[in-house]
Amino acid sequence: MKEIPSLYTWAGGQPALEKLTAVFYAKVMKDELLEPIFRHMSPEHSKHVAHFIGQVFGGPPVYTGEDQGSHANMVQHHIGKSLTEAQRRQWISLLLDSADEIGLADDPEFRSALVGYLEWGSRLAVINSNTTENPITENEPMPKWGWGETGGPYQP
Prior knowledge:
The protein is built from seven helices and no strands. It is mainly α. The radius of gyration is 15 Å and the shape is globular.
């Protein structure tokens, strides 16, 4: 039996994810609805997000290693931002447009996994943005996302 590649490998690895986030955040900075949220992001923001997604999708632990991030750290960036459903939908739309623009894998299985992750993560971001305290502790593991065989990151 052949080994099933990770979503990270299928997507094209770190170069593809960094290209995706760079193109995406360039769109965000021109978007009337999203630009105010990201106006003050660091120049390294898109790369950190690519590292986070890469690790979640089964790539090397660059986000928790080199970037010294954590799941709690990523969630903390959303606390108190009061994100709306319209902003969430626009965020997903621009990200999927960027995926198409750069030629990210577009087979139904990969895109289903990608959209599933974006829906899950963006809905949590909205929920967490309307709180004042981070619900994730520093010792919580990074989420792991795959082809759907495990039903996503839920762990009882």
